[in-house]
Amino acid sequence: MEIRLIDEAAGTDFVFPVNPEEVRITRGKGYETLNMLSYGEFDMATAERVREITFSSFFPARWGDHEMQPAPKEAMHLLTEMMNSKRPVRLIIENLVNLLVFITVHDTTFKGGEPDDIYFDLTARMWRQPKVHSKAGSAASSGDSGGGSNRPDLKKTPKAYTVKSGDSLSKIAKLELGESSKWSAIYNLNKKVIGPNPNLIKPGQKLVMP
């Protein structure tokens, strides 16, 4: 089971070296309690609560064959930077999770008998795109006769991916869409950029994601 964090804005693709013994995903139903005179309290269901993903593992002093991976302290600082960032990062847990999240908790433990290994507990919360609703007639009530020129633009901007060295369409599909078999959907949207051969993608090319 591979677990990775991807910060697309910073160009960071971080793979955790040691799989945790367990991954905990917390889901819940939101509700609001109303108090009606003479009838008592009533619970009214609302939207799903934000999901939380928690797991614990460690950064070993020696990462085996992962020579290009950061040292334990560097990895610890990288997680801290992602936590303190105001932008979400993508959490991918193979066959389980592929979500944009905020890292909300990153606890670190140093053990006396293992001074070079760094243990950690991590909690991530699912990120949701804020939804803005405009009230009908608000422009008229405010005296605006410009036909709603102040209305917020709610059009969804297509997501883009910048090709890096060593990338392939199947690898990008796995990272971005969760399934390598979806590479053809990426190719169909970007034929003009890639050209006639889907296997010849070049670093620096910007691809639109489905």
What about the largest sheet?
7 strands, antiparallel
- CATH top level class name of the largest domain: Mainly Beta
Mean pLDDT: 80
Tell me the overall shape. Answer: flat
Task: Please tally the β strands and state the result.
Answer: 11
The topology string of helices and strands comes to: EEEEEEHEEEHEHHHE
- Proportion of residues in extended strands: 35-45%
Total helical elements: 5
Report the radius of gyration as a whole number of Å.
Answer: 23 Å
Helix content: 10-25%
Give the low-pLDDT segments: 137-147
End-to-end C-alpha gap:
26 Å
Secondary structure category: alpha+beta
| Spatial sequence of strands, sheet with the most strands | 2-1-7-8-9-6-3
Please tell me the CATH architecture of the largest domain by its name: Beta Barrel
Domain LysM: 159-209
Protein name: LysM domain-containing protein
Organism: Paenibacillus woosongensis
Region (Disordered): 133-161
